[in-house]
Amino acid sequence: MDFSKVLIQWYLQNDRDLPWRKTKNPYFVWLSEIILQQTRVAQGTPYYLTFVKEFPTVFELAEASETHVLKLWQGLGYYSRARNLHFAAKQVVNDFGGVFPNSYDKIIQLKGVGDYTASAISSICFKEPHAVVDGNVYRVLARYFNMGTAINSSKGIKEFKALAQELIDPTQPGTSNQAIMEFGALHCKPQNPLCDTCPLSESCLALKHKTIKELPFKEKKLKIKKRYFNYLVLNGEQGNTILTERKGKGIWQGLFEFPLIESDDLIDAKTIVNTKEFKQLFSKRASLSLFNEKEIIHKLSHQHLYTKFWIVEDEEVVKSDILWNKIEQYPVPILISNFIRSFSTKTD
């Protein structure tokens, strides 16, 4: 059985009608690939359409402010992708004269572009035979060949890449790559794969050995870290509040948030008003009330944030140029965005 030809035939009959598949423009394909990293198609599609409309060429994206890019990205998570996207757009303009690079070796030089993304763009747009390996590809290959090597190990990454490269159809690499990814997304699904109607079922080794549910295999995940966030939300008499931009290389770099007190465990109002941070921001007459009685648990890839929002009323005027009726202009983490929506609903 010719593995790739079977999948290509399946793909031509079953592929989804997705906007980025209607173009070979590498700029648009690149946008879609960055947006869809660690993001489901249903969630990523509206963002792709927004970026294409807002930045029809790489020049508009390069000229935009980082704050604007982050605002449009808001809700997608993994914000380093957005910052890298913006940086790479400037690379294309400054280093390649605004013409998107046309080979794997050049594409992979762009910020935030690794082997998978460079392989996808170069194969789809320039017909270079570079195999893609994403979560869907890992799953299809691991099951079909009954491979137990951990896909998140250095050995596994090399083995699966070599196998995918061996299997790709060099005459139509873009279609071949999209076929195996689409097959993993729609047919050889993580849960309840459609083995009964699978065109590869007769030669699938995991189906033969009844190891479908165990594959692909991953080494044990890193321990999840717990963090405790206490946000101080000023509800000023002049309709103002306080937002600060997160700096450094941690989570949410470049996004805005309310003043934050991070603690080692859950803390109460008495503890908060006695902190140095609270005393520096507010007067002795400031009052504090808890907005959410139960802490909100916001889950990131390797950490869980146990979050409380504390509403601060202060009789003395607290200087801040951030107005509540303009707060939507600022890019914020989805955790903050959800709070703002709830708070605005309750105070309207």
UniProtKB/TrEMBL annotation:
What Pfam families does this protein map onto?
Answer: EndIII_4Fe-2S (PF10576), HhH-GPD (PF00730), NUDIX_4 (PF14815)
The protein's required cofactor(s) are namely: [4Fe-4S] cluster
What superkingdom heads the lineage? Bacteria
Q: How is the cofactor bound?
A: Binds 1 [4Fe-4S] cluster.
Question: InterPro entries of this UniProt entry?
Answer: A/G_AdeGlyc_MutY, DNA_glycosylase, Endonuclease3_FeS-loop_motif, Endouclease-III_FeS-bd_BS, HhH-GPD_domain, HhH_base_excis_C, MIG/MutY, MutY_C
**Its catalytic activity?**
Hydrolyzes free adenine bases from 7,8-dihydro-8-oxoguanine:adenine mismatched double-stranded DNA, leaving an apurinic site
Q: Which UniProt keywords apply?
A: 4Fe-4S, DNA damage, DNA repair, Glycosidase, Hydrolase, Iron, Iron-sulfur, Metal-binding
**In this protein, which residues make up the domain named HhH-GPD?**
35-186
Q: What is its EC number?
A: 3.2.2.31
Is Zinc tagged as a keyword? Answer: no
Read off the NCBIfam families from this record: mutY
Give the function comment from the record. Adenine glycosylase active on G-A mispairs. MutY also corrects error-prone DNA synthesis past GO lesions which are due to the oxidatively damaged form of guanine: 7,8-dihydro-8-oxoguanine (8-oxo-dGTP).
Family, per entry: Belongs to the Nth/MutY family.
Q: What is this protein called?
A: Adenine DNA glycosylase
Organism annotation: Asprobacillus argus
